[in-house]
Design goal:
heterodimer, A: alpha+beta, Aldehyde Oxidoreductase, domain 4, seven-stranded mixed beta sheet, five-stranded mixed beta sheet, B: alpha+beta, Ubiquitin-like (UB roll), 5 helices, globular
Chain lengths: 711, 154
């Protein structure tokens, strides 16, 4: 066992008797290791909040601080706690935690689900909480029996005293344990002692997701609730000039028509009335300066910006000299479009604002941000704002945003009743925070043996962090260069720069963020170099990755399982790519053909991941499948285009997503590892676009330099 | 007043006859297992059965199903015992879960019509239902497993 004794890292635990009896354990992490926020102070008063609750009937209820949006966190976190608690897995129940400081993710500095940080951030603290409870239960049993604690051990939800053959279940010990002092330090299991972690345990949320009973934000239902839709200016940054509500108010069921920050809202008895009311609204807009914006204008802005020197994100060697003396040189421009998140559940939020307090029911990735939004709009203190997290019908970064939360809060406050604001699919596609479009200028040189000697990558694009005051000042938005500045290849002369542009289109965090575009750019350009050198793309990567064992490991595994060295049937082609993101490294081999109608058909994807220690292999497989499908839509279909300041797409007819008949067979292989866990929600996405694009390059001899892929 | 037979129960509804069935289910009757995803019959999250056939409730006026048998996800079984639900659990299909009511209703209708669907049958029956989480591979496996369950128990 590993003793967690370092005072700086020690968890301070507090046990209390839960309402209705039973043991309640909370832990505190003074300092909270706010790696991102600069405002952290050491004297923050932490609230007492429970991670686990043991009832007399032996049930163990675990509160999960991270939002369940499909990634399996509602199972993974309870597994970690149950492991150290030596709980009976069949007695475990999971519930979503309220918004409170005790639930801050140490990696995020707030209660937030994103960046594939849930298991990584809570890996140590929640296991400590489980271990502390286990020790208190063991002591409670020892005292009950009048035997030394050392002679007692824990197993499957009970304390055993082998010498006398006695046994007491946790439920029977919970009351007594709650009155015992909390251990100041606890021992955590070594990986070889794990009984639950590493197993493909079934997800706790599956049964409710096959019978319609799982409650998503859209399903919120509060007594007296009204339903609202909001008409927003179709042009980004536009404002309401004036509106005529007469026809909207004439629609049966419409109660109120009012202006809020985001547009003109129609509040009604139900969605259909609100929607029909909105269809009848007459609004004149002040479209503002963005009304002339188009995709072509934005592209020109980026091209112009590319001629200016950028901020240096990485610099080694002498680029000018290296390119001058290179035996061969390659120059290329790579471009990716804006993308919408297109969660299957359009944005929505339900709020009930009262003078004394406020409740918010929402599928959010950011409970702290939701609480802060409510505090700002209502003037209420944090402890009066209750955030009830419901299931998220997809998140992918979109549900980190607070625009839909603000709509519901403003409306509830104005009408004095609970209000559910429902975005239509068109609202969702046309008013997103998009994955940034970028323009990339690349140059490379190689020596006479075909070894790359110079790599220059100039990234031009909008900054996600520009709208966050704490980070807007930084010269380089790290999300814009992730996956590019940290390319793993040993190339002696290397330069990566970033030039910020702001065309006026809102941008945000989209599954795997910067790596979603930079992996495409860098991994495809590398294949172009391999072709120029006359080398196999897999072999060239191997040459350049001598010092990167994790990258090499997954590449070798994926290549071997895909049969990289074996010939393919006529008409089939392969591409390979590797990317490190969010603490994990993933390699993928895509096998494609080109149809008679000049469409790319992806038949098979072999995926290898090194995500450190395995928590739940079934979840890892599911998340790789998921990340690949998400990235395939981007590779083959996705693009948001702008005309007259408006998004041209609006629904799945013109913003298509991958469907069943286009689904490749995906094979997932997980590298064994004893390192602490890495992320799995996002790392599956970056390699798929370049793997497919490289296969197309292999098929056609023409490099793919723009997404979506068009032949 | 429109009379509907929903999940074996007669319901009288007082709504505008043009109201899409989806909103009657969700807002009037509180049957929220059927989801809104697009409103234009492009995603299939709102799939329910009318006389055993899968339809998109978001574009179906409620008046058009008067007198017909309607089944929603809530009516598929009392206890997750429908073979499709059991197969879905065994294959751990759902991720976020939002589209799964529609997926399951489409799969149940497919299996009612074809006891051993081919991959092509699955493609054509299921391609109308989008899953953004990418559970398609497991859906395909689960449909085949459900077909086996049904054959064994027939």
């Amino acid at each position: 066992m590993t003793a967690i004794m370092n005072p700086g890292r020690r968890a301070f635990l507090k046990a209390t008797v839960a309402a209705g009896g039973g043991l309640l354990v909370a832990f505190y992490l003074p300092g909270c290791e706010r790696r991102e926020a600069s405002t952290a102070s050491s004297d923050v008063v932490f609230e007492a909040n429970a991670w686990l609750r043991i009832a007399a009937d032996d049930s163990v209820t675990i509160r999960v601080a991270s939002s369940e949006m499909g990634q399996g966190v509602m199972t993974a976190i309870p597994m970690l706690i149950a492991e150290e608690l030596d709980a009976d897995w069949s007695k475990i129940q999971a519930e979503m935690a309220p918004a409170a400081q005790a639930y801050f993710n140490p990696l995020m500095g707030r209660q937030h689900t994103g960046g594939s940080t849930a298991v990584r951030g809570f890996w140590t603290p929640v296991r400590q909480a489980g271990a502390a409870a286990r020790e208190m239960l063991r002591l409670a049993a020892a005292q009950t029996w009048g035997v030394p604690e050392e002679g007692c051990r824990t197993e499957a939800g009970a304390v055993l005293h082998p010498a006398s053959g006695r046994r007491l279940s946790y439920g029977a010990l919970a009351d007594k344990a709650a009155g015992l002092p909390v251990p100041e330090a606890v021992f955590l299991k070594e990986p070889d002692e794990f009984r639950l972690v590493g197993k493909a345990l079934p997800r706790v949320d599956t049964p409710s997701k096959v019978n319609g009973s799982a409650a998503f934000g859209q399903d919120a239902n509060v007594p007296g609730m009204l339903v609202a839709t909001v008409l927003r200016c179709p042009v980004f940054g536009g404002k309401v000039k004036q509106f005529n509500a007469a026809k909207a108010k004439a629609v049966a069921g419409v109660r109120r028509v009012l202006q809020i920050e985001s547009g003109v809202a129609v509040v009604a008895d139900n969605f259909w009335s609100a929607k029909r009311g909105r269809d009848a609204l007459e609004v004149q807009w002040d479209e503002g300066p963005a009304a002339g914006l188009s995709s072509a204008v934005i592209r020109r802005q980026m091209q112009e910006a590319a001629s200016r020197p950028g901020e240096v994100a990485r610099q080694q060697g002498d680029m000018d000299e290296a390119l001058t003396v290179a035996a061969k040189r390659l120059d290329a421009v790579y471009e990716v479009p804006y993308l919408a998140h297109a969660c299957m559940e359009p944005m929505n939020c339900t709020a009930h604002v009262r003078a004394q307090g406020c409740d918010v029911w929402v599928g959010t990735q950011g409970q702290t941000l939701t609480q802060q939004t409510a505090m700002r709009l209502t003037g209420l203190p944090a402890e009066k704002v209750n955030v009830h997290t419901l299931f998220l019908g997809g998140g992918f970064g979109r549900r980190s945003e607070q625009d839909f939360v603000a709509d519901a809060l403003e409306l509830s406050k104005a009408v004095g009743a609970p209000v559910k604001v429902m975005w239509t699919r068109e609202d969702d596609i046309r008013h997103d925070y998009y994955r940034p479009a970028t323009y990339n200028v690349l140059s490379a040189g190689m020596d006479e043996r075909g070894s790359p000697t110079a790599w220059s990558h100039r990234i031009v694009g909008p900054s996600i962090f520009a709208r966050f005051p704490a980070r807007a000042g930084a010269a380089i938005d790290r999300t814009s260069v992730e996956g590019a500045a940290n390319i793993p290849y040993a190339i002696p002369n290397l330069s990566v720069t970033y030039t910020k542009v702001d065309p006026g289109i809102p941008v945000g965090f989209w599954r795997s963020v910067g790596s979603s575009q930079n992996a495409f750019v860098t991994e495809c350009f590398l294949d172009e170099l391999a072709a120029l050198a006359g080398k196999d793309p897999y072999e060239l990567r191997g040459e350049l990755l001598a010092g990167e064992p994790r990258h090499k490991g997954v590449l070798e595994l994926a290549a071997r399982k895909a049969g990289w060295s074996k010939a393919l049937p006529e008409g089939r082609h392969r591409g390979i790519a590797v990317a490190a993101a969010f603490g994990s490294v993933v390699a993928q081999v895509a096998e494609i053909s080109i149809t008679d109608r000049r469409q790319v058909r992806v038949h098979r994807v072999v995926c290898a991941i090194d995500c450190g220690m395995i928590v739940n292999p079934d979840t890892i497989e599911a998340q790789m499948q998921s990340g690949i499908v998400y990235g395939l839509t981007a590779a083959l279909k996705g693009q948001i285009t702008i005309k007259d300041g408006r998004v041209e797409q609006g629904n799945f007819n013109d913003y298509p997503l991958l469907r069943m008949d286009e689904m490749p067979e995906i094979e997932v292989h997980i590298m064994p590892s004893t390192e602490p866990p890495g992320g799995v929600g996002e790392p599956g996405t970056p390699p798929i676009a370049p793997a497919v694009a490289n296969a197309v390059f292999a098929a056609t001899g023409k490099p793919v330099r723009r997404l979506p892929i068009r032949l | 007043m429109i009379s509907l037979m929903i999940n074996g129960k007669k319901q009288d509804i007082d709504v505008d006859p043009d109201t899409p069935l989806l909103w009657v289910l969700r807002d009037t009757l509180g049957l929220t297992g059927t989801k809104y995803g697009c409103g234009i019959a492009a995603c299939g999250a709102c799939t329910v059965h009318v006389n055993g056939q899968p339809i998109r409730s978001c574009v179906t006026p409620v008046s058009s199903i008067a007198g017909k048998r309607l089944t929603t996800i809530e009516g598929l079984s009392e206890d997750n015992s429908h073979p499709v639900q059991r197969a879905w659990i065994a294959e751990e299909v759902p991720q976020c879960g939002f589209c799964q009511s529609g997926q399951i209703m489409a799969a149940a209708a497919l299996l009612a019509a074809k006891t051993t669907p081919s991959d092509t049958d699955i493609d054509s029956a299921m391609s109308g239902i989008i899953c953004r989480c990418g559970t398609y591979q497991r859906i395909r496996r689960a449909i085949k497993r459900a077909a086996e369950l049904m054959a064994r128990e027939a």
